[in-house]
Design brief:
Distance between the termini: 40 Å
Largest sheet: 7 strands, mixed
Oligomer: single chain
Helix content: 25-40%
Structural class: alpha+beta
Length: 303
Amino acid sequence: MSSNQHPMLNVAVKAARAAGAIINRAALDVEAVRVSQKQANDFVTEIDHASERAVIETLLTAYPDHGIWAEESGREHGSASSDHVWVIDPLDGTTNFIHGFPFYCVSIALLVRGRVEQAVIYDPTRNDLFTATRGRGAYMNDRRLRVSKRIQLKESLVSTGFPFRPGDDFNIYLRMMADVMKRTAGLRRPGAAALDLAYVAAGFTEGFFETGLSPWDVAAGSLLVTEAGGLVGNFTGEADFLEQRECVAGNPKIYGQLVKILGKYSKFASVAEKTELSQNTPALVDPAMEPGTHVDEGPVQDA
């Protein structure tokens, strides 16, 4: 931990590393990890819970009067009336983790009166630590981060997430991805939104977009992006996105181009835009097929 960092950020780093140690130990024998399902394709493990307990214990030991807003335990810990609220995703990328696919992270953000002021994203598989304090810049380990300088979407790498929840509109999402994909150098789906945002801040990708995200998925990453010189908002480009379940991020030039493409897919799009979109969207996926279902055509290899 650095003496130059904000004291609250130092505590968040300590919490993230404690959680990361739990995750790394479990990753040595991931087959032994107990897994349960919250809903279709939405998994939680005993490691999510253990990681979350470690983070909460570390934070509340240092700041017992602060509030907690965590993915697994909600707001049951800490002070419900505090202006300081820690937003925690103890293991973003759980599905990756249980398959041994090494792209997942711990995400911790501090909201002060509703605004993100501190952020930590820790990738335990690579020991990469992303940190940001509002007004003090964003860092990966000890390196100051700046978003990519690329200005053309056709030269850009953009990350996203695929819908997986019951009720998600697959046809609209496929149309959205096709609109972006054909204009970029490549579309990627790593599977952990918090780390996707950290990669935008680091300049590894030029942009990111996804729907259905919760505040703990995007709170820390959003501060990393803005402190690295990027922009974050909803699909229509409005900055108040944290609880709107749609997020687009990028360097300033690419962000603007993505908003132009994605605006019509926003839940805040005009009635005319939504009507035109629904009329011009072909049925690429059978609407009767829910996420996690498949037609039985004999033995199928696990993808």
